[in-house]
Amino acid sequence: MKLFPNNFLWGGAIAANQVEGSYNHDGKGLSTSDMLPSGILSSHQTREERTPGIKDVAIDFYNRYPEDIALFNEMGFNCLRLSIAWTRIFPNGDEESPNEAGLAYYDRIFDELATHNIQPFVTLSHYEMPYSLVENYGGWADRQLIGFFEHYVSTVFERYKDKVKLWLTFNEINMSLHAPFTGVGLQEDASEQEIYQAIHHQLVANAKAVKLCHQIIPDAKIGNMLLGAINYPFTCNPDDVIAAMHENNKWLFFGDVQTRGKYPGYMLRYFRENGIEIAMEDDDLDVIASASVDFISFSYYASGCASADPKQKEVGNIVASVPNPYLKKSQWGWLIDPKGLRILLNFLYDRYQKPLFIVENGLGAIDELDENGEIHDDYRIAYLNDHLVQAREAMLDGVELMGFTTWGPIDLVANSTAEMRKRYGFIYVDRHDDFSGSLKRKRKKSFFWYQDVIKTQGASLTVK
Prior knowledge:
single chain; alpha/beta; TIM Barrel; two-stranded parallel sheet; 16 strands; 38% helix; globular; hydrolase; glycosidase; EC 3.2.1.86
């Protein structure tokens, strides 16, 4: 029982706006991500104010993808999660005809993956959308975006139906509650009324994408993606238990709608008590009810605690929670909780009874080259080892787990702060926050560790 199943999907996860660069090449339009040169924690710039950012070049995956995919193959990947940049296909978001250069680019990517027997796992919208849709429509506040998104996804489904069989709709869809510009194209001071209205439009668009995928690619699977921010009660005080329930419901709401096909009662109560009224068209709820996702995917980096005392909170990974005194923190203040992954897997599987997929898990750290130019990232190995051990424990508990794609298999630009020094990869990229560096790739110690984990189907993992 030490082995993961033979059909388990092993790989890594990247996002177009954090690796590709070439932000304005081959007809690509500006995205909301391009307007955040200092990451999603900063205020966005307008088109006129825009200054160069590190993501403009990122790690130049746009041109260097054959080299990077060869390295992924060397590690033994049979799956790569990546995203399509909406603005490469429809630069402004509302065009009738797609940009052929953008479509052809992803054809080349998928063909290159196929030569290495790596299955592409594609996210349709990963923390970016055409900035023109924000300028001209106010982002997802306007329900016209449902139609624009539907046109985009039907275009890529038709184009890649023979090449891509695994899809995700929106990356960490619940993050819109914490970073509305990144998630739904609204200003950071948008009201809850405005944010939840935009989220409703996105949930309708999600359902339409699921239906289109089933129609156009019947042998494909399409899932949603949640930021798996599980919260424990800070104490056994019932008030803290209820506080944890409320905190978890904030993100489980998205999974409930995308899986069960209706707005849950706890959310309807929240809307009533906070004066939130969602404008819907007559068939919106029918559309949502008719399109349950095939599987649940999620990111997991840390757990948190919830307390009825608001003074207890502090901000970790963008989301505020109460620190857990039993856990250590990473260099960026994120709580390291491998057993929380097992708890979350059981929690989600019990709730939804659908296959699960861990699509992001990893450790951001400052990696130092030794005197021989090598990187001995034992801290990353320990982090991932312990999380994979707990994932295996969850499978022994009966959880149906499809795969594991670590974030990110190669150093990339951090989304929250637009930094290169916060490195996640098994592959080092010579690129730095001052825009310097040769972009040369180098294998870290963790590269060979992950290679061995995949080769042995997890038998090489260390149980403490």
